[in-house]
Amino acid sequence: MPSKTKENNNYTKNRKNVQEMMSKTSNRKIYVNNLVTILCICCIIIAIIPLGSILFEVFKNGSSAISFEFLTQKPGSIGSGKGGIGPAIQGTLIVVSAASLIAVPVGVFAGIYLSEYAKSNNKFAFAVRFFADVLTGLPSIIVGIVSYVIIVISIGSFSVIAGAFSLSLIMIPLVTRITEESLKMVPDPIREAAHSLGVPKWKITIFIVLKTATSGVLTGIVLSIARIAGETAPLIMTILGTSLYFSSFTGPVDALPLRIWRLASLPYESAHASGWGAAMILILLILGLSVGLRVLARKQNIATSKDT
Amino acid sequence: MTKYKDNQSLIPLTKFSKFDPIFKSIIIGAAAYTLVMLALILFAVGEGSKEIFQDEGLNFLTSTDWNAVPGRESFGALPYIIGTLVSSGIAMAIGVPISLGIAIFLSEIAGSKLKTSLSFIIELLAAVPSIIYGFWALFVFRFWIMDFVEKPLHNFFGGSLPFFAKTPFGIDVFTAGIVLAIMIIPIISSITRELLLVVPNSQREAAYSLGATRWEAIKIAVLPYAKSGILGASIIGLGRAIGETMLVTLIIGNATGLNAIPTSLFSQSQTLSSLIANEFNEAASELHLSALIGLGAVLLLLTMLINVIARLLVYKMVKTSNPGGRI
Q: What's the whole-model pTM score?
């Protein structure tokens, strides 16, 4: 709450502004208004150009690189232009699934706590919520350093486990907050009805509240999977990247973003062409997840709005 | 009654289940894990950078050498701190006004159909991984910037203004700043848009009733109300720009030592995170590795500070829920 005098000051200042504004000629007002609208439209266009160009270039350059061999084979010798990105696709799938296996239960349970169990003035809950938000803004390279120091050094080798742990650190706060927000959308009468029937709280939470909010929670999980699938920085210091297929959970693997980075740093045209191919696969994976989800959600929305 | 048969299986004889306290402790444990993660992060970064801070002390923050040759090691973080601040500064200068324009258009001007499809496009932009931004910037965008922006600026002002003095080459702190701006625009604009939607309609109606045009209503009634939230959203974007790694690594030129301090907009530079990514796997010694983690410690403190401030500002505006949490 601002103090009374400050409010008064603001009030008189605002009133002056408004009076000045109203006394100006109306033609100019309309002119300025239109100008601002045009400026805003320009901002939108400026933001859309890069997206259009990225999609255009990735699909134009990527589609010529893609073939069955490219998707399944190991990378050839450097600069030869032969071979493919098979291990990278496999590695991305393995590391991202392992990270989700850690992050989804922890994140969903933490979200349940924040929404269903924590009282509104609970300091612990405030700290969890606040630091989950702060952690979502943490640079991903820090997360890589953390799992390097904690896991890679203690195991003694770059490993899938370290990669999955680092990605889970990025994913948990996202899933926590999205679960909390989705559960809060569930109307209270549903909980009250269940309580009045004498259902224990944990059953209400899981079988009624969480079930009602399933689509919201799932959306959140899929979006955060899409987010971690594109992370590169933490993988540099955890899974390292290799040109071989997966061998063990304590050994290095490859991943698509990492492969794109290595290919971009090579001075050969053929490597860049493979890079575009890998970028296309990555973007198809990520946009496929988020676009597919939205299409599904829209269909569901239409279906439910027809019901009611 | 048969209709409710399924529900009856949920109902126990008593209201209290033995599993309730167990369940509660599981979810409290999960929630506490967030705080454990924070502790782990602080511990690991502190532990990893201990050696360099013991060796160089606070000199690490102020010196400009970067020499990993065994026997003559000397590490200083100052050039990369400057590089980080300059590239994110450029990103903010370009990104914040554009994001604000987008948010205003989406929440105040666009009709509902246009709004959904444009919001969808902005969300797609946010979903594109930064490595792909970097790859595209390295092979496509930098030539646009070099030919259409940097060369004209250099030709016109190169002689008189030191900002534009260096011969442009496309891979420099200016390009990095612009691509960072492209990357943070969807983040800032989607948070700002949600904040503008929180502004009560009575604010707008009051302005309109005084005869304000739409822009005047936005200026006197909407933006002042959302001021702290918008500041918070911009700072969240700043945090992203400061921590971004892959995109910067590909297009900032990766200079080290004194060369990494940008003297003009078109000089090569280096940020904290890009240097870590470049040298981490080739670290020549324990001390070199520790120095890289030390850069991480500086980055961690910087982004933690920024994010704490930003979140408090956004919380102030949206007391109960936080739209920024979804990003």
A: 0.87
User: Does the residue B31 lie in any domain?
Assistant: no
Instruction: Determine whether the interchain pair B11/A230 forms a contact, defined as Cβ–Cβ distance below 8 Å.
Output: no
Domain limits at B191?
78-326
Contacts within 8 Å (CB) and 24+ apart, A215-218: A215/A297, A215/A300, A216/A178, A216/A181, A216/A182, A216/A185, A217/A108, A217/A111, A217/A178, A217/A179, A217/A182, A217/A183
| CA-CA-CA-CA torsion sign (B207, B212, B218, B224) | negative
Domain-embedded: residue B16: no
C-alpha distances out from residue B97 to A263, B51, B220, Å = 35, 42, 18
Q: Decide if B303 is inside a domain.
A: yes
List the domains of chain A with CATH numbers.
68-307 (1.10.3720.10)
CATH code: domain of residue B258: 1.10.3720.10
pLDDT, one tens digit for every residue, chain A (308 residues) = 445 566 667 777 777 776 666 665 567 888 888 999 999 999 999 999 999 999 999 999 999 888 888 888 888 777 676 778 889 999 999 999 999 999 999 999 999 999 999 887 889 999 999 999 999 889 999 999 999 999 999 888 899 999 999 999 999 999 999 999 999 989 999 999 988 888 888 889 999 999 999 888 998 899 899 999 999 999 999 988 888 888 888 888 999 999 999 899 888 888 898 999 999 999 999 988 888 887 877 777 665 554 43
Nearest-neighbour CA in chain A from B159: distance (Å): 30
Q: How many domains does chain B have?
A: 1
Our CA-based measurement puts residue A69 at a distance from the nearest CA of chain B, in whole angstroms, of: 23
- Among candidate residues B129, B108, B107, B128, the one with its CA nearest the CA of residue B119: B107
What are the chain A neighbours of B224 within 8 Å (beta carbons)?
A: 14
Say if B181 falls within a structural domain. Answer: yes
Whole-angstrom Cα Rg for chain A: 26
- Predicted complex: ipTM over 0.90: no
CB contact under 8 Å between A149 and B7, yes or no, is: no
